[in-house]
Amino acid sequence: MRPKIYLFGDSITESSFTYGGWGASLAHHFSRTVDVVLRGYSGYNTRWAVKVMERVLPAANAVAVFFGANDACLPDRCGAFQHVPLHEYKHNLHSINRWPNTLVLLITPPPIDEEARLKYVFTILASLIHPYVENPTGLPERTNEAAGAYAKACIEVAGECGLPVVDLWTKMQQLADWKTAYLSDGLHLNETGNRFVFEEVVMKLKTEGLSLENLPVDLPMISEIDPNDPLKAFEG
Amino acid sequence: MRPKIYLFGDSITESSFTYGGWGASLAHHFSRTVDVVLRGYSGYNTRWAVKVMERVLPAANAVAVFFGANDACLPDRCGAFQHVPLHEYKHNLHSINRWPNTLVLLITPPPIDEEARLKYVFTILASLIHPYVENPTGLPERTNEAAGAYAKACIEVAGECGLPVVDLWTKMQQLADWKTAYLSDGLHLNETGNRFVFEEVVMKLKTEGLSLENLPVDLPMISEIDPNDPLKAFEG
Known about the structure:
Chain A has 236 residues and is an alpha/beta fold.
């Protein structure tokens, strides 16, 4: 049986098997070593994640936990029903870290491009997803400052629990043009953003001992099969 | 527990989670309904697949069986160690169809662009994979005619067992420029070829009742969650 990595998160996870998505890239990277299992739920926050985690996550070797973008929706704006207070977000992340023998990798929410959120979400998506959620304020449902507070809280939980963490919020903003370089609509990842997350996750898993160098390969590689006696590789 | 589809095949399967790969596209298509599990083994033929199938395939809801490209290597050329005679290929496919309650979908090998095989394989790949396999004949290791014979045999097995089958060999060649439209090196799929396989597999699974219309969605969609009482969706 191969080890399994569950990807447990919101829409950034649910959409991670699109062209060049970070989930698909992980599955390709580990194609002969690890099963990558998708458990992404668009729009979900940690409050809802805690309600469902026992149903959707069996004991796994590793879980990438990637929530916070929806928790960080502002409580007085149109995404309020997805908002989770900061202290509860931290408590929920503690609850999700519930398996003694599972490597839990936390991922912070990405930074937010507020102008792009206004431009994309309330002209295109809102009418499709929730026709009755209106945005009379003309303000974005998320701010970069709020996302940063949740990222900081996520890193604190990692420290408290001794868990590895990918600090997307900080790392992405180290690039001057992070808004267009990594994001497609001010929140979700474009191809380069997906590549960034993939590389960060691979690097972090490696520091935890989960890497191609350490994992057994499922069945002999073609280069290990003797052309003069191929079946020898499958004996025993 | 979500249903599982195993993708069991050779390098065309192992590489199916690259950019726009047919496996990744399937995982995205079924992101909230089905787990797509990768079991691709580069260079493998049905003889080796039969040796390992009990180890790598637990009882699954569905298995896409995509072998034949290596079986069809010609026995008197440089890929001879991968060759499996036609009658044994058929017998092996019968053996792989071993689960009474599993939907087995057969996929024929794709057509072969012999000129591209010569150009790509023996200048780039052979030295990397098997430095000691030489090609003094200057002839390709696979021919389109041979691939066609294995595709025909695959379709016969599907008929004998009452299994669905995707006839890639025939369907791809219905396009005049199939060699460049679908293939990257005369054998493996480019992005359009991957898209083609993805669409054919989705269509065939649908005729067998495995489609988004028929499958339960894992957890409530965000559009089904009441903004005024979100937790109601997670009761019971």
